[in-house]
Specification:
single chain; about 525 residues; alpha+beta; PH-domain like; Rossmann fold; Tumour Suppressor Smad4; 3 domains; ten-stranded antiparallel beta sheet; five-stranded antiparallel beta sheet; about 25% helix; elongated; binds adenosine-5'-triphosphate; binds N-((E,2S,3R)-1,3-dihydroxyoctadec-4-EN-2-yl)hexanamide; binds calcium ion; Lipid_Phosphate_FormReg; ceramide kinase activity; CERK_PH; Ceramide kinase
Length: about 525
């Protein structure tokens, strides 16, 4: 690869040693003078390169550069200082570069290097040259609208933002308007109707998955409203939102942050926001007949996760521990639910839920342009007979029905509900856990926390789908019930009829609720695409 031309090259001092420092359009590099270390880094190098006293930081990972103020006698550019003869006094003219340092477990930190110049003119030349390169990075946000949920997770959202995030945003010269929410749905409503979105390059969510969901709903609804798109129509093609959402994790599960960034660390998230990273995400719409219910990006869970959430909402005061208590309680109740799932499978030649290919930034599968288009084609313009895409129907008794648009990796389950799910491939993984013994279900759950395959059980099925529908048993149509009861005597059909009309009579299990990204849906019968 051709090396980018050097824009500036000088001998500067770093911690008392003379270093050769160079800046190109791709990277800032420094190495001890006279060292025959590796060559200067080239474009496309990720993270600072360190070899035998040589360091390279890609320009796209420089956070900021500042003339170091401590010993500077004057900040007035027009007032020239005498060039010191003694190298030790050259400390007076230095500049500090803050940059991204990658550490373990996908965490990023803000590191600094201070380089000392022989005179102020040179120092200012360096500061200006680096700033000029940073100004070329137009994907970086300059103005952000920040929403803080002060009650998410352990109620630390405000502190996390003020102590860990605001100082780095300010170092990166990002201006912010900060709103601390005063009630649930405050952020959603503000985005939907009030916020002047033209003023901002992005929205920042300080909170958990529920807070992200609020902000996503606000932005999607605002975009559809402005474009005259009716969200109640399940087959409506939605308009993409122009603004990105950055997530500063301060919730209980934080799976949307963890699955997109690789960690639930506020500083890492802040640095990703500053460098202008972006990651597209699948969003599925959930309807009940012709009524729009919600969008989902992480988990849509019926049965186990629905019941657990319903129970945990009453224990919100406990913070994240509520999920452990309600999880155990729901596990012990061992309730199962009957119903019918119909789904449109995704193209199995592209990827499958058990192929062990993990979605990472720049994922090849998510970048295939045909994926989302073919979703529309298959359902809208090509008849089922012309494609191999036909709806499949499964009826049964389930402990859990989960649909994951993304892996749902989180600190509780670092590989997630569906480890090979893709972030932006237009599909979700539908996981059906059929009625089984408690011990088998426990084995399945425990596999979410270790390396074993949670799908490798005879009572678990997983399908990659583009759409699905669910009907709980007591709402099934007569034809669905007749299909189910082929071979059953007429007396059974008679009792089924009674139980459908009186679902709480005790001889059939009642229905569960859907957990939609941590919110309870008001209907059990849903259509998802
Ligand atoms: N000021 C507020 N007062 C009360 N509730 C709020 C406020 N602001 C936001 N909320 C609501 O709080 C709920 C939970 O928030 P959040 O997602 O941040 O935390 P969490 O539920 O603890 O974490 P997770 O969703 O990751 O499990 C959201 O549904 C959101 O709508
Ligand atoms: C006996 C040991 C059992 C261990 C089982 C661990 C299984 C963990 C699977 C993790 C799945 C996370 C799915 C994410 C769901 C979020 O949209 C939602 C909102 O934040 N969180 C929950 O519903 C809360 C989900 C809480 C999961 C515990
Ligand atoms: Ca997906």
């Amino acid at each position: 690869m051709e090396r980018p031309p050097r824009l500036l090259c000088s001998e500067l001092r770093l911690q008392g040693r003379v270093c050769e420092v160079s800046l190109s359009g791709a990277a800032l590099c420094w190495r001890e003078a006279g060292q025959s270390g590796r060559r200067w880094g080239s474009a496309g190098v990720y993270g600072p390169l360190k070899a035998a006293g040589s360091h390279c930081v890609p320009v796209c990972e420089i956070i900021a550069v500042q003339e170091t103020e401590e010993d500077s006698p004057s900040t007035d550019v027009g007032k020239w200082q005498k060039v010191p003869q003694n190298p030790s006094s050259s400390n007076q003219h230095s500049f500090t570069v803050s940059y991204v340092e990658r550490t373990l477990k996908h965490r990023w930190r803000c590191s600094e290097v201070t380089l000392h110049c022989t005179d102020r003119k040179l120092c200012l030349q360096w500061v200006q040259a680096i700033r000029e390169q940073l100004a070329l990075l137009t994907i970086r946000p300059k103005r952000l609208l920040v929403y803080i949920n002060p009650y998410g997770g352990k109620q630390r959202g405000k502190r996390i933002y003020e102590q860990k995030v605001a100082p780095i945003f300010s170092r990166a010269s990002i201006s912010t308007d900060v709103i601390v929410t005063e009630r649930a749905n405050h952020a959603r409503d503000h985005l939907k109707t009030e916020a002047d979105l033209k003023k901002y390059d992005g929205v920042v969510c300080v909170g958990g998955d529920g807070m992200f969901s609020e902000i996503m709903h606000g932005l999607i609804s605002r975009t559809q409203c402005d474009a005259g798109v009716d969200q109640n129509r399940p087959d409506e093609e939605l308009i993409s939102c122009g603004l990105r959402i950055g997530i500063i994790p301060a919730g209980s599960t934080d799976c949307i942050c963890y699955a997109t960034v690789g960690s639930n660390d506020p500083v890492t998230s802040a640095l990703h926001i500053i460098v202008g990273d972006s990651q597209p995400m699948d969003v599925c719409s959930v309807h009940h007949h012709d009524t729009f219910l919600r969008y989902s990006v992480s988990l849509l869970g019926y049965g186990f996760y629905g019941d657990m959430l319903t129970d945990s909402e009453r224990k919100r005061w406990m913070g994240p521990a509520r999920y452990d208590i309600s999880g155990v309680k729901t596990f012990l109740s061992h309730r199962y639910y009957e119903g019918t799932i119909s789904f449109l499978p995704a193209d199995g030649t592209v990827s499958t839920p058990r192929d062990k290919i993990q979605c990472r930034s720049g994922c090849n599968i998510c970048q295939m342009p045909s994926l989302v288009e073919s979703t529309y084609k298959a359902e809208d313009s090509i008849s089922e007979a012309e494609t191999k895409d036909t709806w499949q129907v499964i009826r049964g008794k389930f402990l859990a029905i989960n649909a994951a648009c993304m892996s749902c990796a989180c600190p509780r389950s670092p590989k997630g509900l569906s480890p090979s799910a893709h972030l932006a491939d237009g599909t979700a993984d539908l996981i059906l856990v059929r009625k089984c013994s408690r011990i088998d279900f426990l084995r399945h759950l425990l596999r979410h926390t270790n390396k074993d395959d949670q799908f490798d059980h005879p009572f678990v099925e997983v399908y990659r789908v583009r759409q699905f529908r669910f009907t709980p048993r007591y709402q099934e149509t007569d034809s669905e019930l007749e299909l189910r009861e082929v071979g059953a005597g007429s007396s059974k059909h008679f009792f089924t009829q009674i139980c459908r009309e009186h679902p709480a009579c005790g001889c059939t299990p009642t229905q569960s609720s859907w957990n939609c990204d941590g919110e309870i849906l008001p209907h059990a019968a849903i259509q998802v695409r």
